[in-house]
Amino acid sequence: MDRAQKEQVVEELGQIFESSGVVVVARYEGMTVAEMQALRAQMRVAGGAVRVAKNRLAKIALEGKPAASIADYLTGMTVLAFSEDPVAAAKVSDEYAKKNEKFVILGGAMGDTALDPAGVKAVAQLPSREELIASVVACIGAPASSIAGAIGAPASNIAGILSTLEEREAA
Prior knowledge:
By secondary structure, this protein is α+β, with helices and mostly antiparallel strands. It folds into two domains: 3-126, CATH 3.30.70.1730; 127-171. The protein contains six helices and five strands. It has helices at residues 3-19, 33-46, 55-62, 88-99, 117-125, 129-170; strands spanning 22-27, 48-51, 78-83, 104-110, 113-115. It has a five-stranded antiparallel beta sheet, with helices on both faces. β4 and β5 (113-115) form a beta hairpin. The longest helix is centred in the C-terminal third of the chain and has 42 residues, at 129-170. It is elongated. The mean pLDDT is 85.
């Protein structure tokens, strides 16, 4: 890898560290290519990505970035999992670590906040952006449906009374 390629990798990593909602650092020593492809596929479905980079280049890219606190985790065979959604990469990484003992979460960063393995697990427990939007929409819609039901109830009661009176007159 020549100097220009290294500079390009540092630039790409810098953009990843700036634009990602969460970055998870994990050790992947002993994983097969098929296992790594499965992780990449799961992360892609969730809207994230996985990147293996030289630790030295990643440390250079971290200088001055919000996620600079993860530089200590970059030793040995490490992989970076990241996503714009602040929960997606942590969720996928946590689920994958439960299934594959060779994938060990070392820590991560969520903006300026450094995360240890327990912190990554706690972030993974949070609802995703889509789940939060759905719950907000449900909260907004619930009062409206209650009002519609309350407004329609008297009309329904009157219709029931009228139909009972009709049945009595017919009989």
